[in-house]
Amino acid sequence: MGVDACKAGWVGITVAAGQVDSHVAATIEELVALADGPLAVIAIDMPIGLPDRDQREADILARQQIGSLRSSVFMTPVRAVLDATDHLTASERNRQLTGEGISIQAFGLLHKLRQVDRWIRQRPCHVVEAHPEVSFALLAGAPLTARKHTWAGAHLRRRLLTDAGIPLDSDLGDAGRKAAVDDVLDAAICAWTAQRVARGQARSLPDPPQVFTDGLPCAIWS
């Protein structure tokens, strides 16, 4: 299963024996429960393993992999930011420990980050972090230059996924109605990454993963 955050909560794309299914749910627990049968690997576009200070190697290396789209990699906030209730506090805490604040977009994802940070402790199967643009660059053989929000970018990503055996139906049910186009594409490429992890073909950035005081292996897989 590949998972991405969306306005409705979370969108997931599952791939099994050539069958592609889509799901959407308010929480990550509910989403995973919707899968038909047990899952081997979940790849999620959300940080796993939060630094105590400084920046994660995973984020720095991911930015290096994707060229002009490097700004799509948010630098993961430090763990001390998780319980911050306003952007100013969160940004100041992060600046004290990394030298940089956090964007309002990154602050807006904190509630999803907290949700994953709790869920990962009781994960139902092997779970890895993925970044869609890193995986798309690997699948395409070079970093993409068209952004996923554009017609050209969405068309290219859908074609790459189809060629990789993950065709996305024009009717995705609730997922198609509740998740944005780019969220579905991101979940689908994360499913491709999950397949590679299951087959022992995936690579990690960094290799080996970092480990902070939370004890979670921290790496972006593709």
Sheet having the most strands: 7 strands, mixed
The radius of gyration computed from the alpha-carbon positions, rounded to a whole number of angstroms, is 16 Å
The first-to-last residue Cα distance is 14 Å
Provide the residue-averaged pLDDT: 95
Shape type = globular
Taking strands numbered 1, 2, ... along the chain, how are they ordered across the largest sheet? Answer: 3-2-1-4-5-7-6
Residue stretches low in confidence (pLDDT < 50, at least 5 long) are none
How much β-strand is present in the residues? 15-25%
Return the string of H and E elements: EEEHEHHHHEHHHHEE
Number of helices: 9
Quaternary form: single chain
Global structural class: alpha/beta
What share of the residues lie within helices?
25-40%
Give the total of beta strands. Answer: 7
Secondary structure elements and pairings:
Blueprint: E1 2-6, E2 9-16, E3 19-25, H1 28-33, E4 41-44, H2 57-65, H3 87-98, H4 104-108, H5 110-119, E5 126-130, H6 132-140, H7 151-163, H8 174-178, H9 181-198, E6 204-211, E7 217-221
Parallel strand pairs: 1-4, 4-5, 5-7
Antiparallel strand pairs: 1-2, 2-3, 6-7
Helix pairs in contact: 6-9, 7-9
